[in-house]
Every structure is written in C-alpha cells, then in structure tokens.
Write a structure and sequence with these properties.
Layout: E1 15-25, E2 32-39, E3 43-48, E4 59-65, E5 70-80, E6 86-92, H1 96-121
Antiparallel strand pairs: 1-2, 1-4, 2-3, 3-6, 4-5, 5-6
Length: 122
C-alpha cells in the first residue's frame, strides 16, 4: 500500500514507451507536463516535470503524445511516488475512436516486442 492506495495487480500488459504528456486536474487547475514511461490499454505511468501531489482516485485529463499516436483521455490517479513526480494513471471511459487507436498502438508495441525477443533468441 502506498499513500493509502491498496496494491492492485495490472490487468493489461504494459509496454515501455517514451513520449510527452500534458495533464490537468478535472477541477480547474494549471496544465502540468511530463514524460510517458509506459503504456497499456488500461493506463500509463507518468514522470512529471515538477513535483505535484495527487490524491488517490483524483480525476485528471491526460493528453498523451508519442511518435505514433496522440490522444486525450480521462483518468484516475491510482498511485503516486514518494517524491510527488511519478504517478500511475488508470484510463476511464475511453471513447470508441481513442480506444481503437490505443488498441492498435499497443498491438504494434506487442509486435515490436515479439520481434525483439525473436532476434534476441536467434
């Protein structure tokens, strides 16, 4: 348990992927920026550019950008690091188009990971 949040196992495989992130609390707040560290169909891990404390289950709006895809999604903070710069986000109610884009993106990551594993085993 970290900062009052029970430990929960992930339901979707996460893939390491770098990219930029812009986010804000749903209740009017300044725009924050950071880096995307990993991504799954269920959520992501974000390193914030500055310290910012988040409460468990706090609602945020996230704009994710990588080489392959850009999309906005509502999320819920699932956990935060001790230094208030690392947060885990669970995606909430992805619109159909964004869900399809995310699914395709994750499928490409899986294919890339499979190819790397095959080369490593060769």
């Amino acid at each position: 348990m970290r900062k009052g949040i029970p430990v929960r196992r992930r339901t979707a495989k996460r893939y390491g992927k770098s990219g930029s992130v812009a986010l804000r609390r749903v209740v009017s707040a300044p725009l924050l920026t950071g880096s995307l560290f990993d991504l799954s169909t269920g959520g992501c891990l974000i390193w914030l550019d500055c310290e910012c404390a988040f409460e468990a289950a706090e609602l945020i709006e996230v704009k994710l950008q990588t080489d392959d895809v850009t999309f906005r999604v509502m999320g819920s903070v699932r956990h935060s690091g001790e230094d208030d710069r690392l947060i885990g986000v669970e995606f909430l109610d992805l619109p159909v188009k964004e869900k399809q884009e995310l699914d395709r993106f994750v499928a490409r990551l899986q294919a890339s990971a499979d190819a790397e594993n095959a080369l490593a085993a060769f």
